[in-house]
Amino acid sequence: MTAPDGTASDDKPGVVDRLRARMPWFDHAMRAQQRYNDSKGDFYAAGITYFTIFALFPLLMVGFSIAGFVLVSQPQLLGQLEGKVRSMISGDLGNQIVQLMDSAIDSRGTVGIIGLAAAIWAGLGWMSNLREALSQMWGLFRDEPLGFVKTKLSDLVALLSTFVALVLTVVLSALGHSTVMEDLLNWLGFPDSPVLSVLLRVVSIAVSVAVSWLLFSWMIARLPRESASFRSSVRAGLIAAVAFEIFKLVASLYLKSVLTGPAGATFGPVLGLMVFAYITARLILFATAWAATTSENMAEAPVPVPQPAVVRGRVVTRTGLGPWQAGAAAAAGALGALSVSRWRKR
Q1: Nearby residues of 210 by Cβ (< 8 Å), 6 or more positions away
Q2: Which of 126-135, 216-225, 246-255 has the lowest mean pLDDT?
Q3: Alpha helices, DSSP H only, in the chain?
Q4: Which of the chain's termini has less CB crowding within 10 Å, N or C?
């Protein structure tokens, strides 16, 4: 390359710059990564992970409360469960566990109310962090933020909508699972075959990707503080869904290898859950950054014409010295001159 003055220049584009100029998809990925870094994506992903883990404990309390109501309504099931506990853990320890179960069932109402209140509180924190992170990835900033009560009500509606969407996602994924489909075909009388098993596995993965695609697209477009472009969100949601399916496969292999030892059985599920929540949050945020850095969304927004300037003159009146101030200044000057003349004579 040559400089403008005709001399040789060593300012050649690097490998990354040449790849970005040659491959548009790579340039888009680099723009998305830059947006992700500038918007502190890792920081928000860590916050989402914290609130996700924190919300599990009150949800477990609600689950225990529901289980308590179910066991009270079915005494035979409760008796079978206590019998299994005593058969597996003999002696006083088994009796203590049974007594602990009975006390937990007796206080099922209180546990459920406390767990539900704590779950709503933790869920609002999770939703607020998630919506703020998605808004940052889109570069959307509300000029006039809502008040505290309106913001919490908006987060509550978004939380309930996300909960319904997650439940539908889990149900559809479970219906599309290969095991459920095999049981359905066996019930209909279809014989088992290797080809049919492979086909069911492929259909199961396709259904899982499709359901995740709908969920991620909805989250990317509708959960930010200001609704964003749904067209860009659909393409970004597909990328997130495919990456999420690959990640689930790798995570299942990781858990199978970790849970074999005693240390892995103790700490593996907790660490696995934290890693799962963190990677999922990063996938969603990066997909949102991808949607925000598409060509149609990177176009410059029109700048409004400024209002005409208003020039207002200001007259400042400065008053002179007062009589007593002028007299004091004259006396000080005379005293200073007298002192200087005497000092010269000496």
Answers
A1: 241
A2: 246-255
A3: 15-22, 24-38, 41-73, 75-88, 92-106, 108-138, 148-175, 178-188, 194-222, 230-258, 262-292, 323-345
A4: C
Q: Which of 228, 220, 271, 270 is nearest to 244 (CA)?
A: 220
Q: Are residues 201 and 279 in the same domain?
A: yes
| 288-316 residue pLDDT tens | 999 888 877 765 545 556 677 676 766 65
Same-domain pairing of 190 and 255: yes
Instruction: Give me the domain span that covers residue 66.
Output: 53-128
| Pair (176, 287) in one structural domain | yes
pLDDT of residue 326: 64
Give the 3-state secondary structure of 234-267.
Answer: HHHHHHHHHHHHHHHHHHHHHHHHHCCCHHHHHH
> Is 346 a domain residue?
no
Cα 113–115–119 angle (5° rounding)? 120
Look at the block and give the residue holding tokens 């949607």: 291
Whether residue 111 is found in the same domain as residue 252: no
What distances in angstroms separate CA 310 from CA 33, 78, 190, 298, 313, one per listed residue?
44, 81, 83, 34, 10
Non-local (6+) Cβ contacts of 99 within 8 A are: none
Q: Are residues 20 and 155 in the same domain?
A: yes
- Which residues partner with 2 through β-bridges? 8
CB crowding 182-193: b at 16 or more within 10 Å, else e: beeeeeeeeeee
Residues 29 and 115 both lie in one domain: no
What single DSSP character describes residue 190? P
* Count of domains for the chain: 2
User: How far is Cα 9 from Cα 288, in angstroms, rounded to an integer?
Assistant: 39
Is residue 113 pLDDT above 70, yes or no?
yes
